[in-house]
Amino acid sequence: MIETDRASLEPTEEQVVYETGPNRLDRDSLDSVPEGTGKKLYTIGCYTKEDWEHIHEVLMQDGTLEDNIPSSSIECTDEKGHSDTRGTYLLDDEEAAALKDHPRVEYCHVDYQSYPGTYAPEPGELHATPQYKKRFEKDVINYRAWNTGPTDSRPPQTGAGSSDYNRTGYQIYRHTQRENPWDATDTGISNSDHHVFVRDVEQLGDGTGVDAVVCDDGFWIAHPEFVDCGNTNPVNWKTGNALTWAGISTQGANCCGVLDIIVDGPYYIDPEFFNANPSLLTTRWDGTTVPLESAARSWWSDSSQRSVGFSTIGTVSGISTLYTRSTSNGSNTAKATNGTNHGTQCAGQVFGKNYGVAYNCNKWVMNLYGGSDAGIAGPGFDVLKLFHLYKPNYSWVSETNGRQQNGDRNPTLSSHSWGYRSSSHSSSGRYYWYRPGDIDGGTNGTNYSGSSSEPAFYRDVGNYGDSGRMKGEHPREASYVVAGKEAVDAGVIFVVAAGNSNQTQVNPEDLDYNNYWNDSSNSGVGVALTECMHTEFGYDVYNTLNRRGWPQAIGAAGTGANTIYPAINIGALDDQIQSGGTGGSNSGDRPTDYKEKIVSYSDRGPSIDCYAAADDTLSADGRNSFLTYQHPETYTGLTLTPYDVDFGGTSSACPTAAGWITTKLQYNRAWLWSDIKTWLKNQCGPQNPAKFYMGGDQTSWSATDDNWRDAHGTNNYGTDIVVIWDAPTGSPSEPQKPAIRLKSPGGLTVTNGLEIKFT
Q: Is 55 helix (H, G, I), strand (E, B) or coil?
């Protein structure tokens, strides 16, 4: 067995702390939280400046009758004039608990900084190195490039009872480290990408305390990847779901860990209403108490079908009456009737017990674009926004106490492996503008017409991926665009698949950002981009060639070079490591000298935030088709045969990255999208060109420019290519291993040397 060298994860000399005397806080001399239920300092945070001003004003009043606000005047000890949304007040525990439920209040918690005797960390605890946690507590089978390899590199064609439990794809083990562990020069193994590593997987986090929402088509949530299968579950996987963990719902013996945000989410947000109206509740196939589907849909669309506290938060129209558990979720006796099973595969890689990264997160799904949909034209984004803003503050406490409310609302991450794409692309009869200096007039660009002069930057879009030379194009402002931006601004993290069109996506500051096409050259003078539009799915999009499409551009703000893109945009890795050679006649087949590479169809370029395992990963499936394998686990009551499947595309890269990001939000609960991008850039860091194929620069529109035809490389315009991995964030709450300490109050004398070894 070739073991991975983890020397880089051991403490450096600077990280090892040598103490010769006590270095601990004198807590007796510091202020601690007062005992009892009396007044203590609480910090209140609101969603907006206007919300805080309102809450502050009412708190100062004596005799207010507003719900969830103390009737008597409350003392404000710190207005925090530097902040628009926070202040510190003297409250008793009952008053604080009521304020947490006010719709304008985002959090209300004890002011930790005022009580260092209770909450301050020991100084030494801030100097530590990561403690990686074994995931399975046993050796597991890690597959890569298995569908092109020999038979012994593939999962066995066996059913339940097989010894092949806890098998997984390379989407987990690959991303436990920066550089590729299947690298042939490191392993010394011929055809290293077919090698099967048999070993446990170590991760820093498991997603606990984060709401991860997979937004896709129909799901089969009864697959054993999501259900308690008794003693065959991975050791560290926690049974239950967000409703049962919170004590809102009952839990059956074969409890499913996945909930649907449309038909189950209202009970999570507003249990008071449903418990007061028990006729609106039912028991799901797995024993979980859930709302009637009609009652859940009404909760979203009708403010009178809620508790009073949620009557003014706004409603969501457009959720189809066909959105049911049978159409969108399936059961232990029937698969979901809506969708292609694509959603099942995506969910498996976000939070499946064997194939997912964030296997202990709060697991949510939403049928976003299937026939029985929540709707991608706005309603689905509105649902995500309201869910994030008004869900309760449940987080994991302990094995015995489960999840309990606190003042720290869970982060919400949504994974999107879908995209608007146009097949309007044509090789003839169109006009193209390459690096125009004046985008409004287009007069500084050069236009080309006809297939004989079709430029390389345009010609190869869609050649290696989507059929029909499809591509994504930048959306014009519309209701669904605004709905997406509102969800982003509310704090929902969007992780999106970049696309499978072999399209170069660039940032506003890049030379190719303003490339576009049009049906007419306007007599050869050029036309403004604002006049160059066509319709995708009923919505206007600009005829851009190298900008983000939708939802890659969700939440975009600003104009021109000042445009920001909040969505985390994910490209796809190839499962195969190129074995060298002379290559074929197509320069896209050029050798990569045993390097890891981008898969040929993946969108690429500097607007891709990171790349993740994709091609020929493994995930859960409900079908028995090409390259599917019977899943080894089952459970009592399951009447259908579960399968695992070969999965790929940026559709796979997206949930893989979403899972890893979820594990980082676990310990960085206040992170915004910008913090995630900073972590990707600085902590995950760039790939090593000696081990990762970069490709050459695209500097010309030329029809013969080989760099545009390089299927496995990308021009990142001077920026680094990042592959996401389990890089420590530096958060004090992230799992830590204590630094080495030698304590001697009376001093320490060492003779004949001192040797310290890491084991």
A: helix
Q: Residues 652, 654, 660, 663: is their CA dihedral positive or negative? A: negative
Report the distance separating Cα 384 and Cα 261, nearest Å.
8
Name the residue among 259, 201, 341 with its Cα closest to residue 625: 341
The span from the CA of 494 to the CA of 298, in Å, is: 26
- Amino acid, res. 52: W
* CA distance to 220, 292, 330, 331, 623, per residue, from 640 (Å): 11, 25, 11, 10, 10
Helical pair 379-390 and 479-490, crossing angle rounded to 10 deg? 20
- Reported residue count of the chain is 759
Residue showing tokens 């001093």 = 747
Q: How many angstroms separate the CA atoms of 621 and 632, rounded?
A: 12
CA distance 118 to 112: 8
Phi and psi (nearest 5°) for 389? -75, -30
Cα(first)–Cα(last) distance of the chain, in Å?
A: 19
pTM of the model: 0.78
- Judge contact between 509 and 558, C-beta under 8 A: no
> Judging by DSSP bridges, how do beta strands 128-130 and 539-542 pair with one another?
unpaired
List alpha helices for 541-683, DSSP H.
Answer: 650-665, 673-679
| Angle subtended by helix axes 342-351 and 650-665, to nearest 10 | 30
Q: What is the tens place of the pLDDT at every residue in 117-163?
A: 887 655 434 333 456 677 777 788 888 877 777 766 677 655 444 45
Alpha-carbon distance 562 to 424, whole Å?
A: 29
Given a contact cutoff of 8 angstroms between Cβ atoms, the answer to whether 420 and 525 are in contact is no
> What does the DSSP assignment read for 236-284?
TPPPS-HHHHTTSS---TT-B-EEETTTTHHHHH-HHHHHH-GGGEEE-
Beta-ladder partners of 108:
44
Low-confidence ranges of the chain (pLDDT < 70): 1-26, 120-132, 151-153, 156-166, 184-191, 394-407, 423-430, 437-453, 460, 462-471, 520-527, 537-538, 578-593, 625-627, 697-709, 736-759
pLDDT of residue 501: 85
pLDDT of residue 457: 74
d(Cα 756, Cα 759) in Å, to the nearest integer?
A: 10
At position 79, the amino acid (one-letter code) is E
